[in-house]
Amino acid sequence: MEMTLRWYGSKHDSVTLEQIRQIPGVTGVITTLYDSMPGEVWSEEAIAAMIAEVESAGLHVSGIESVNIHDAIKIGTPDREEYIDNYITTLEHLGKAGIHMVCYNFMPVFDWTRTELARKRPDGSTVLAYTQEAVDAIKPEEMFASIGKDTNGFVMPGWEPERMARVKELFEMYRDVDDEKLFANLKYFLERIMPVCDKYDINMAIHPDDPAWSVFGLPRIIINKTNILRMMQMVDNPHNGVTFCSGSYGTNLENDLPDMIRSLKGRIHFAHVRNLKFNSSTDFEEAAHLSSDGTFDMYEIMKALYEIGFDGPIRPDHGRMIWGEVAMPGYGLYDRALGATYLNGLWEAIEKSQTRK
Ligand code: DNO
C-alpha cells in the first residue's frame, strides 16, 4: 500500500504540500480539480499543472478523488451520452498523464451526509457527527443551511452551494429512480467507460454511500456486501473496483468490515480508513483513528487489507479538529497526520509479524 493524504489544491486547502511532505511515510496525495463541475472535460493542461505542482513539492499524485458524475448519468436521461463522452475524455487525459486510480460515487443528490460538523467531544476536539433523528426532523432543502454555518468558510466536497441551491429540483428529477434503475444506470455507465479504463489501466474505485442507507427517501445502492458484490459481478472487469471506506460502510453496524474486505480481494483500488464511535445505532461521531477511541477494530481492518495483498493508495480519512486548527471540517492536518502515522504503525507491525510466521 501507499500512504497518502487527500489534498484539495492550494486554492481550497488550508494544508500545504510542504506540510504533507513532512508526515512520515506519506508519499502521495489524492487530489482533484476542485473547481470543475460534474460533466465537464478536464483539460490536459489543467491536469498537467496539477501534477507539476504536486511533484515540485516532492510528492506525487496517487489518484483522483473525485471525478464526479453528472446527475444525467445517475438519472439516465438521454443527455447522459454527452456527459459519458466527456467523462471518457477526462479519463483519457488522466490516463495519458499517468494517473491510474479514480474515485467517484453514485449517490443521488447528496454526497456524504452528516448532521453536525463540529460536535464537541469530552477532550475538547470537534468532530463530524450524524443522528437519524436530526435528518428525520428536517427537509432536504434545509440540510445545507443547517450545517453550512460550521464549514469554517470552506467549500465541502459534495456540498457545493451551486448544487445545494437546486436541491428541490434535483429531488424532482430523481423521482422515478429507484434502486434497480440506479443499478442499471451505473452498469450502463461502467460498460461505456471500461474500454478507456482498459486502454490506460485506470482503476475505477466507487465510494460507498454515506451513511450506508437511504436518506430522505433517495435510492442508495453502494451500502453493503451483497450490493457491492452484485456491482462487481454485473461489470466483471478488474478495473471496476471499489474505494473501501471503513467509515462509510461502518455506519451500518451490520456490515462486517474485515469480511467485506476479504470478499473484495483484487477489487479494492483505494482505501479510506477511519473509526466511528457509536452512541446508539442511529447516532455516531467520527472518532480518532485509534481503535480504543471508537467502535471499530482498526487492527482487524488493516490486517484484512494486508492479507488480501492490497497494494493501492490508502489514506487516513476525516480527522478531528484539534490543537486549535481551523480547516475544512474533517480535513485538517493534525489529526489526519496522527491517523496516517497510526495506520502506518499498524501496517508495519502486521507486516513484520506475518513474515516471522
Ligand atoms: C467525504 C468523502 C466523499 C468522497 C466522495 C467520492 O469526505 O469521503 O465526499 O470523496 O463520495 O466521490
Q: Could you give the topology of this structure?
A:
Layout: E1 2-6, H1 17-21, E2 28-31, H2 44-56, E3 60-65, H3 71-75, H4 80-96, E4 101-105, E5 116-120, E6 126-131, H5 132-136, H6 140-148, H7 161-164, H8 167-173, H9 179-200, E7 203-207, H10 225-234, E8 240-245, H11 246-249, H12 257-263, E9 268-273, E10 276-280, E11 283-286, H13 298-307, E12 313-316, H14 334-355
Parallel strand pairs: 1-2, 1-12, 2-3, 3-4, 4-7, 7-8, 8-9, 9-12
Antiparallel strand pairs: 5-6, 6-11, 10-11
Helix pairs in contact: 4-9, 12-13, 13-14
Mean pLDDT: 95
Helix percentage = 25-40%
- Tell me about the largest β-sheet: 8 strands, parallel, barrel
Ions, cofactors and other bound molecules? D-mannose
User: Order of strands across the widest beta sheet?
Assistant: 1-2-3-4-7-8-9-12
Helices, by number, come to 14
Report low-confidence residues grouped into runs of 5 or more. Answer: none
What coarse outline follows from CA principal-axis ratios? globular
How many β-strand runs? 12
Order of helices and strands: EHEHEHHEEEHHHHHEHEHHEEEHEH
Beta-strand content bin = 15-25%
Distance between the termini: 21 Å
Q: Pairing-aware structural class of the strands and helices?
A: alpha/beta
Radius of gyration from the CA trace?
A: 19 Å
Give me some keywords for this one.
357 residues; alpha/beta; 8-stranded parallel β-barrel; 4-stranded antiparallel sheet; globular; binds D-mannose
